[in-house]
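Service request form, structural biology core

Requester: graduate student, group of Dr. S.
Request type: structure prediction, single chain
Budget code: on file
Notes: please return the result as structure tokens.

Sequence provided:
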Amino acid sequence: MSEEKKNVERMRQIYEEMERTGSPQSLLDQLADDAVYKLSLPPGVPLSGEFRGKRAIVDYFDELNEVLEVLEVTTWDFVGNGSQVIVLGEERFVVRKTGKVCHSEFAFVLDFHEGKIARALLIEDLSGLVEAYQPVSGRVASRASGA
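Core staff response, request fulfilled:
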């Protein structure tokens, strides 16, 4: 089996395990020690920024659980391109600060090196989360927020 196919299969198994357990541990176990994890969130919003190193990424997932509750994740495609895997899907989550249920599609882009995840970029409309942390006067309706 080619390395590209192995990486795609790794990601399928990771998502199956996360769905079964509700825990990100299967993803965390596949991170390189110097992995980088980045989200498409503006600065100043909890969870925004780039997390460097396995410890920082573990801390991110601890914070994630405090900021929102993931209700459901559905994947519909895993695309391999050399050492890169792109996972396409959608999720429903509750922003703990507001109690608002949000729905959003995502693209999760992962770069593998020697069988481990070296870089992960989550591209998703997380405006429901952004809105929860903006002043009331600055809020804008979005599809993800359900507004």
